[in-house]
Amino acid sequence: MTGRWVVIAGERAQRPSDFLPRRLPVEDDPLRPCPFCPGSQLDPVLECRGPDGEWDVRVVPNLYPAFSGNDPMVVTHLGPVFTQAPASGVHDVVILSPDHNVSWADIEADHSARIMSAIKLRMLEHSELPGLRYSQAVVNSGREAGASIEHPHGQLLSMPFIPGEAANELAGFARFQGNCLLCAVMEAETEEGHRVVYADDRVVMICPFWSGTPYEMLLMPRSHDIHLYEADDEDLAAMGRSVQLALDSLRFRLGDVAYNLMFHSAPFRTSADFHWHVHVVPKISTRGGFEMGSGVLINVVPPERAADDLRSSFAHA
Ligand SMILES: [Zn+2]
Ligand SMILES: [Zn+2]
Ligand SMILES: [Zn+2]
Q1: CA 225 to ligand 2 centroid distance, Å
Q2: Three-state SS annotation for 252-293
Q3: Burial of residue 2 (number of CB atoms within 10 Å: 0-12, 13-18, 19+)
Q4: Please, what sign has the CA dihedral across residues 12, 210, 283, 239?
Q5: Rounded to the nearest whole angstrom, what is the distance from the C-alpha of residue 216 to the centroid of ligand 2?
Q6: Which of 39, 44, 98, 167 is the most exposed place for a label (fewest CB within 10 A)?
Q7: Which of 201, 191, 233, 239 is nearest to 218 (CA)?
Q8: Any idea which ligand is nearest the CA of 173?
Q9: 6-24: per-residue pLDDT in tens?
């Protein structure tokens, strides 16, 4: 997808139990109440309400934003090698639930749909701000995955440039000698079947052929939209439900591991070849010097075996 090679080293086989143990919870400071629990002082920029009329998804500004303000992206050269630009943009926090201890693996389908619709609505708003080019939505769960607050939440960071990973994927789509890379992947994978974890009439969930990480999954909507914020409500709801199923199968197979979710949508206002999708990556292996030095990941669980393991968990759902 990005043109990067990975090494599949299945003979270094390990059982799932050989991986890192349960996720480490983030230590909550007992002197500081959780900023995301109901009753906190943060002013929401968006609230989605559940059946009982109370909010169940809430978007608030990040108090320590990585991107903020609306200065134009003007690059300044400070001498021959130092280049800088203002980190303009928006940094939202998406509170996934009022419940401090819930996991998305347990969130029911219509609540998951409201999470997806909150991400869409904010992404759409960010896309209309002048000067911003791209939005990255993520969920980090567990300390090893980079979470700093235990309360289940995601983040939406919108920035005035196209970051490297998105540029690499866009180049992968552009290089592909066909209509759409991910439409072709879905067709090929559903035909072969052995890397498919789950599929319904709206979403296909696979362990990608090019998996660099054990048990990583790729979730794709069947309908071809390049922007997440242009997907229709049914597709967003189906994706929310698939995220829940993916996390539930990970937990069943590997235990309560840390993980990252990455939502990839095309840069704003572009019609480049792309197809929005979601990466689910459990944090169960660490990158050593070889991975950092070469950028080549070594994956000890072939995606076919990972898909087989994860699929078996659906029998228990
Ligand atoms: Zn909380
Ligand atoms: Zn497509
Ligand atoms: Zn991607």
Answers
A1: 7
A2: HHHCCCCEEEEEECCCCCCCCCCCCEEEEEECCCCCCHHHHH
A3: middle
A4: negative
A5: 20
A6: 39
A7: 239
A8: 2
A9: 999 987 655 555 665 667 7
Across the chain, how many H-helices and E-strands are there?
6, 14
pTM for the whole thing? Answer: 0.94
Whose tokens are 């199923």? That residue is 245
Is residue 188 predicted with pLDDT exceeding 80? yes
Residue 167: is it exposed, middle or buried by C-beta count within 10 angstroms (0-12/13-18/19+)?
A: middle
Residue 315 has pLDDT above 90, yes or no: no
Distance CA 136, CA 159 (A): 8
Distance (Å) from CA 263 to ligand 1 centroid: 23
* Pairing of β 203-206 and β 217-221: antiparallel
How far apart are the CA of 219 and the centre of ligand 2, in A? Answer: 12
Ligand nearest to the CA of 260: 3
Assign 3-state DSSP to the chain and report helix, strand, coil percentages, each to 5: 30, 20, 45
Candidate CATH numbers 1.20.1250.20, 3.40.600.10, 3.30.428.10, 3.40.50.620; the one for domain 6-72+84-314: 3.30.428.10
pLDDT in tens, 130-157: 999 999 999 999 988 988 889 999 999 9
308: Cβ contacts below 8 Å, ≥ 6 apart: 194
